[in-house]
Amino acid sequence: MLKTMLPLVLSGLVGIAAAQPAQITVTNVAADSVLKGLYNRSRYQASTAIDKVSDIAPDMFQQVSADSLSSYLNKLVTFYNRNSGSDTVSTTTGIGAARRWVYSKFQEFSAQSGNRLLPSYLQFNQTICSVARHRDIFAVLPGRDTSNHSILIVEGHMDSRCENNCDITCKAHGADDNGSGTVLTMELARVLSKYTFNQTLVFLVTMGEEQSLYGANAFATYCKNSSIPVKAVQNNDVVGGIICGPSSSPPSCPTKGAKDSTHIRIFSLDTNFSMHKAYARFVKGQYEKWLKPTAPIPMEIMIMSPVDRTGRGGDHQPFSDIGMTAVRFTESYENGNGGATSGRQHTTRDVISEGDTMFVNFEYLRRNTQINAIGLIGAALGPQSPDLTLTETTQHNVQVTVTGSTSPVGTYKIAVRTTGNNDFAVVYTLQGGTTFLLPNTVANTTYYVAVA
């Protein structure tokens, strides 16, 4: 992964606060032990380890399936209403039936991967829409690194809503918001559980997002209270649509009916100097290296300046608010701004399709799933990030010196950008050494440098 950038000048939305959950419990003891680093790693290794990015990337690209995503989402919308306060007893409708179905799919994926994937609930007490107890669903794929117990989380919230925040009787399909992020997370659990990674992966489906990010806050609190080192969080929320609605939370799309199936936005906390923006750039770099050159329809990843869309929030924020690296993936063109007067979000109109119009485009969702996957793969298999120092030479040039962790292959990537740019302007390759003199530097210019 990239080391946080360091600046050198040559001479010449606030996190959403939620009340704290109580009695947080992981129902699967084995999953709890793995997350805390207390397990025998040999117990969970594949009989034949597929553990190189160069091998996993092309295989994953083929394995992620639009048909699988479609089958999951077409089932998910049949539960009628997935409000966090909805029915938990019925076997066919409500949040309870929906979460049991997701849990059963995680069990199915585990059986397909030699029982290496550990499904669990995270149960917590907190009053949401008059219901006092709730459950996130998650699955853990144990890592093999005995010296680094950090975990990577990919997540999407499953709860849906209509115009009234606690309406438990309306037909809240929640196809794009956020069935799309839910099924993306499920598909990643299916596909990635066949591979072997250094770090543990967590596939998390949360509740209570629509009321105040409660489910994500409960999981973040659990990680903090249990001293679980979180390497990064990839939150997916509203990631399947390509049609601009009559309203859209800015910065987003231009006019109603406009379409965009080749861009995805990544939002994160703080300035472009933050660890969150650094991780967004890392994901973009992994995609551009491993997938984009051969992708039939290449995607453009837009690294956004704000933590989220104007006036909106998401499940990445409870993590980043307590100092954990976290980002949010969101489609380029949204259909709605969360209000009840226009667009499809938070209404009974948030459906997969109407007539010949697809409001969730499964090929676009597949591409976003692949982008998420390559970010997780690179972060879960990459070596420990090196450190770097920057010095100004007597000739007023910038010298980069790599320190700390050494590259196992003797190669480093040196990335450079200037003030006001979220993206790197240029990436250099350093081989056979640990010092590099940046070319073409200009006096009185601030440069941000990263090394990987």
Give the number of helices: 10
Helix vs. strand class: alpha+beta
Number of strand segments: 18
Helix content: 25-40%
N-end to C-end Cα span? 6 Å
Number of domains: 2
The stretches of 5 or more residues where confidence is low (pLDDT under 50) are 4-17
Q: Class of the largest domain, according to the CATH hierarchy?
A: Alpha Beta
Strand content: 15-25%
Give the CA-based shape.
globular
H-E string: EEHHHHEEEHEHHEEHEHEEEHEEEEEE
Rounded to the nearest angstrom, the radius of gyration is 22 Å
Could you please describe the fold and organization of this structure?
A hairpin with a 5-residue loop joins strand 13 and strand 14 (398-403). The chain has two domains: 22-381, Zn peptidases (Aminopeptidase, 3-Layer(aba) Sandwich); 385-451, Sandwich (Immunoglobulin-like), CATH 2.60.40. A nine-stranded mixed β-sheet has the order 2-3-4-6-5-7-10-8-9, with helices on both faces. It has helices at 29-35, 53-63, 66-76, 94-112, 175-192, 209-212, 214-225, 275-290, 317-320, 362-381, and strands at residues 6-9, 22-26, 118-128, 131-141, 151-157, 200-206, 230-236, 263-268, 300-303, 326-331, 353-354, 357-358, 387-392, 398-403, 411-418, 426-431, 435-437, 446-451. The protein is built from ten helices and 18 strands. The protein has 452 residues and is α+β, with helices and mostly antiparallel strands.
